[in-house]
Amino acid sequence: RLYTPEVTVAVMQELHRRGTLRSALAGRDEKQINLLLTFVARRVIEPRFTPVLVTVADMITDIYQPVVGQSAIVDRQFLRLQEAIGKEIDYQEELLEVLGMMDTLFATFTKKRATHLEENKSNGLTETMET
C-alpha cells in the first residue's frame, strides 16, 4: 500500500469492475476506515489514480456518512479528503484558465501566420502577373 500504490488502486479498480467494491469497502472498523481514507486523501490528486479514487471516495462517503461525528479520527480524515479534493478542483480550474489563454494565443498566432502567408502568396501572384 505504501510502496506500491499502483497495486492497491488496481485492486480497487478490479473490484469496481466486478461490481464488488461497495461490499469490499463496507463493514470496516475505525482503524480500517482511517487507513482507507488516509490512502485515498494522499493519492486522489495523482492523475493516474484520480478516476478510480474519486469513485472510491464517493463510495466511502456514501457508506460511512451515517458514522460521521462518532469518531474524531475518521472525521479528521474526511476533512483531509475534502481538503485534498478541494485543492485539486482549484488547481484544475486554474489549469483550465491557462489552457483557455493559451488557446487564444495560439488562435491569434495561427490567424496572423495564415494572413501573412496569404499576403505573400497574393504578392507573388501579382508580381507574376505583372511580368
UniProtKB/TrEMBL annotation:
Source organism superkingdom: Eukaryota
Keyword terms, alphabetized: Nucleus, Repeat, rRNA processing, WD repeat
Key word rRNA processing present: yes
Presence of keyword Cell membrane: no
Pfam families documented for this protein: UTP15_C
Domain named U3 small nucleolar RNA-associated protein 15 C-terminal: residues: 4-105
Compartments reported by the entry: Nucleus
InterPro entries: U3_snoRNA-assocProt_15_C (IPR018983)
Gene Ontology cellular component annotations, sorted alphabetically: nucleolus
Biological process terms in GO annotation: positive regulation of transcription by RNA polymerase I; rRNA processing
Entry protein name: UTP15 protein
Native organism taxonomy: Eukaryota, Metazoa, Chordata, Craniata, Vertebrata
The encoding gene: Utp15_0
